[in-house]
Amino acid sequence: MLRPWLQNNEDLIESRYIEPWLNSQGFFMQKVVAIVQNLSLDIAIGAMISCLFIGAIFQVDINNHMLIGLGIAIWLIYTFDHLRDARLAKSRPVNPRHAFHYDYKLPLTVAAISLFIVGVINATFLPVKTIELGLILVLLSGLYFFYIYKSKRKASKEFFAAFVYTAGIFTAPLSLLDSVELTVWLLIGQFFLLACANLMIIPLYEIRIDEQDNVNSLVRYVGASKAEKIILFILGLNVLIVVYFFVTQNGFQQAQYVIIAMTLSLFVLLSKHVIFTKGQLYRIICDGIFFLPGLYFI
């Protein structure tokens, strides 16, 4: 039975108004988590960990300049996206991340411009092929922002954003490969599917919040019930690819254990809605799945 996403949202909405992570009964770590989430630092760090993981799977050397470039690129994409949402808001948003960008538009804009300059300087230390693929990522990011600027419904922006995020993670590793085989494309597809599910689950939890802030999403466009079915299909497809790797392929099988852990984490979020609504645990777990590739190095 599908979870009652439209029920029990009153507690979530109320919790968003009081911003529980920022009013966290004096617990310092909860405040730190709130700042990290609002600044999208967890997303940037997760992308860097995933990039290192992919580099290890491909057996290529991901250097510090590549990681710095990726971290800056992902952070800029998410920050500009949130700043745009904050700029379009007629009043202070209910969503704490958007409210944070609404309150601190100027310092965040200055920080973004400064980091962009750092990113340009850092790019001069990258291999030529990495720069070429990085320019493609810049073009894709530009197309993404053009799409959300021009599109009225923005119903498929999650898929576009997932594509850009996946491209960012794989830019450096792919630039160091001599050839790209089927298994590489399948691994790219798996991360894309995980990113799609990730970017749909959070709006699924926050559907009432997005309605109040008038934030468009695929979940709002198709409805909560159909959105959950889409997510289940995406995760199921990822499981089938995992099975394919174990049955027919010899390469990247170790990576599949990490992919399974990431996929199961998202399955759990769908099955235990009421539990993970409390304290925005769904957001910590959803964004945190891209930290799981770090288990590969333990």
Automatic annotation (TrEMBL):
Swiss-Prot/TrEMBL keywords: Membrane, Transmembrane, Transmembrane helix
ATP-binding keyword on record: no
Bilayer-spanning residue ranges: 39-60, 66-83, 104-125, 131-147, 159-176, 182-205, 230-248, 254-275
Stated name of the protein: Prenyltransferase
Species annotation: Roseivirga misakiensis
